[in-house]
Amino acid sequence: MVHQTNSPDLAGIRRRLLTWYSKHKRDLPWRRTQDPYRIWISEIMLQQTRVAAVLPYYARFLARFADVRALAEAPEQDLLAAWAGLGYYSRARNLQKAARKIMELGEFPRDYLSLGELPGVGDYTAAAVSSIAFGLPHAVMDGNVARVLSRLGPELGDIKSEPVRKRLRALAEVLLDRRRPGEFNQALMELGATVCLPRRPLCERCPIRQYCEARKQGLENQLPVRGAGPRTEQRGKKLLVIEKAGKILFWQRAAESSRLAKFWELPERDQLPDAAVTDYAGAFRHTIVNTTYLVEVCQASVAARPTGFRWLPKTSLADFPVSATAKKALALHAQCATPKRNG
């Protein structure tokens, strides 16, 4: 359970955390705006995705879809092409559904409940956008915040269990600085991302270490407690890169596919058993949820275009939603195709 104290120094925690954040926060583009559209885009992109991976996508996405109308009216192929590589593609589709709903409403929702009614927006995103963009007092709870609070408590239960999540959410609400909720939420998230790390937290850099019960009890490296996760399955896959006259052979997933609907893929060896393999380009590992694939990449040729496949120009691949595994395979193919210099 969360350790309870009769007189937590809430003012001290808030003051120290906000002072630290003002001095040490990372300079991220979504922190330089109050535009709810841009803040919302960043929060959706950051779901289960590292900041470093999001940064280039964020800039390109906003250059292509500068406002809600542009996103709502974009062809799906353009949307998926802009998102390709970020993963969890239902996020992109939900973004567009939400943009169309916002257009119907006539304005961007400005409160927690209305935000939560948008497709793809859950409790965390509604709290983040409403607090950061509109200054509303709603506490966020993501993985970084949960880790900070579990150590601050300390919370000795399984952080994945609902009773523990409820206790941590209650603690987050108590701690929230209601005068500066957006900054406070970002400060807690920043602390978890840069100081209160999953392994070997940098306690000496923590602005609220004097309040941390886990540190006082020597539990900072044992918390948070996590139950056993699902086993990772290992599978093999062989992809073929078939190039002809500046074009590469692809097939497209069906619109009703449960994964990567309408994305373009390289053929697998089993799909084209008659293809002539001409060279081995290499291999890489690619993890999707709980499955890790060892992907072997071969260069091959075919006598004619097989039924159900299409030649896509190499120079225009950025205009198509190409899967991450296909992109990795093409990168290996390009390395093999690049002439090596002597000496």
Overview of the molecule:
The chain is of the alpha+beta class and 343 residues long. It contains 13 helices and six strands. A hairpin with a 2-residue loop joins strand 4 and strand 5. Helix 2 (36-45) runs antiparallel to helix 8 (123-134).
CATH architecture of the largest domain: Orthogonal Bundle
* Amino- and carboxy-terminal Cα gap: 65 Å
CATH superfamily caption of the largest domain: Hypothetical protein, domain 2
Low-confidence stretches: 1-6
How many β-strand stretches?
A: 6
Radius of gyration: 24 Å
Q: According to CATH, what is the class of the largest domain?
A: Mainly Alpha
Largest sheet data? 6 strands, mixed
Q: Indicate the percent of residues in helices.
A: 40-55%
Summarize the structure.
With 343 residues, the protein is an alpha+beta fold. It is built from 13 helices and 6 strands. Strands 1, 2, 3, 4, 5 and 6 form a 6-stranded mixed beta sheet that branches.
What keywords describe this structure?
Endonuclease III, domain 1; 41% helix; 6 strands; alpha+beta; 2 domains; Nucleoside Triphosphate Pyrophosphohydrolase; 343 residues; six-stranded mixed β-sheet; 13 helices
